[in-house]
Amino acid sequence: MTIPITIACRLPQPRPSYGSHRRRRAGKVPSRPTLPAGRVPRISRLMALALRLDELVRTGVVANYATLARLGHVSRARISQILRLLALAPDIQESLLFLPAVERGRDPIHLRQLLTLAAILDWQQQRRLWHALEGRPRSELSGCRE
Q: How many Å apart are CA 97 and CA 88, to the nearest integer?
């Protein structure tokens, strides 16, 4: 014998996504934040990477630079090139981190130029050469192949 039974239950309502909930409440579509024009220069990214890699080794998260190279799937020589940026004067490092965005074309400053600068141990001389490098048009920069 079968007895029909009706069971009433409330199913949970799906939560509206952030955008749709906001649209219903505000009555308009939220605007997306505008991104700055251009892209971060490659040398700025490399400088930030050098600082981060050094921190990983200093804090013991990574055993040594050879391990970093293995984890990053690059050669130990490439890791050394990137980390040589740490030999630059602190104010030059800061300038590299905050270079203006490149809107089109090639980056105005290249790693090869800075490795030459980093080989100089005197920070005052580095600063003089850095200011000269900053002020020149890209075509006059030494050590750069176009």
A: 12
The answer as to whether 36 is a domain residue is no
Phi, psi of 50 (to 5 degrees): -60, -45
pTM of the model: 0.69
Cβ count near 109 (within 10 Å): 23
Q: What is the domain range of residue 89?
A: 42-100+109-134
Say how far apart CA 127 and CA 132 lie, in whole Å.
9
Residue 126: inside a domain: yes
Q: What is the pLDDT along the chain (146 residues), one digit of tens a residue?
A: 677 777 777 777 777 666 555 555 555 666 777 766 789 999 999 999 999 999 999 999 999 999 999 999 999 999 999 999 999 999 999 999 999 999 989 998 999 999 999 999 999 999 999 999 887 544 443 443 33
Q: Does residue 70 lie within any of the structural domains?
A: yes
